[in-house]
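Q: Okay, next protein. This is histidine kinase from Paenibacillus agaridevorans. I've checked the sequence twice, so it should be correct. Can you predict the 3D structure?
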Amino acid sequence: MLFVLIALWSIAAIVWISEPGSAVNRRLGGLAFTGGTGALAAMIDLKWLPQAEEAGAGQSTLRLLYEVQALSSISSYYGIPYFFLLFAIAYSGLRVSRGLAVALPVLLLIPIILCIFLTPYYTIYYPISFKVVVWWAVPYMLTGAVLVLSKRVPPSVYARTHWIVCFAVLPPALFCMFMNYILPSLGMLRMWVYNTWLVGLGAAVFVIGLFTYGFMGMRVLIQRRRYDSTLRAVTSGTAMLNHAIKNDAGKLRLFGEKMKRHAIATSQQELLADVEAVLSASRHMEEMVRRVHRRTEDLELRPERVELSSVLREALELAKPSASSVRLETAFAEGWQCEVDKTQLAEAFGNIVTNAIQAMSERGDAMLRVKLTATKRELVIKVADNGPGMDREQRLQAFEPFYSTKRGSGSFGLGLPYAYHVMSKHKGSLTMRSRPGEGTTFYMTLPKRAVKAVRMD
């Protein structure tokens, strides 16, 4: 039971700390924490109380341990179905009115409050009145399981994390439903001792998922913070570099123009040619630094209401001259009006399309698929190519500033970091899937609430 306690409370801490503002994470953390209180009650019952009695502890100490055990046990039995259903409601994206969303956590507490005040208090063998609690706890957990499984997930990297959530949460929760509520209501007591294996399995899935595809968006969050930190450092560096080089380039131009006038006045053609070369180099150097700075500076959005599919079509039209040998397939959910920075979003989308076209430059059957779909909460722009794809090392570095697979092309490797930055500013995300030989797919996700999306028929 010590393992279960450590595992569940560690999971609770991770999900709470990772994104405290998320209702899904708060409620999942509550589920893990109350599950851990059950393990704490078992530890006190099986080890700490017997050890305290053998050591000759006083009645006050034994009474304190008993009360902690009672509160932990009650917290677990009542908290698990309550937090599981709240988690499932938030995770599934179930649409409820604002008033009901506020009232629901209170309404779901009513059976718990009635059981606390109207049923007998805790005893070692009957910590709760199982024959009463089973009538609301089981419906809570079954409803929660249905809601989690019914969540609609777009076919992206988030689909994998959804199934990781299902495998990590549902088997332990449903097994706990049988062992903690159904079987005890039939007279088979203390069946909770068999929960350890399923909880261990759920914890293992959680850890594996966290470090592979992610869990509840946590791996994405860790990556996002790393990219944000890197981009801030690059932004600061290029800002200082841009300022310093502009000053020095200004001095070069000033003295260069003076030397140029002298060379003309004295008819020194060789000196004139050298000065022109210096002036040209200074202008080129200043322009190159300015271009880098423009791509990395902190963006200031200027939102306007636009029809999203129209923005995508206009950006594709601009890319057509470089895509003459690429077969293009599009499918757009029409009528979605959003408040976005049209220029920045079109530029970010254009960067991704350009990358895809360049990746397929050596293919005779190049195919680019662009799709706009709408889910309950998000608008998803999918850009898929059938190019060479990327291996794991390339995928990990794809969003890093100044990384590029296009050697000798004059690319700064800032197209994807810029696109990522634009999506972050819109409270959205930019993710990708790619494997060698299978092409690359990018997903630009815009939360409907953040961009005030409305469908106009």
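A: Here is a summary of the prediction. Confidence is low (pLDDT under 50) at residues 214-222, 407-412. The first strand starts at residue 304 and ends at 307.
Q: Noted. On to the next one.
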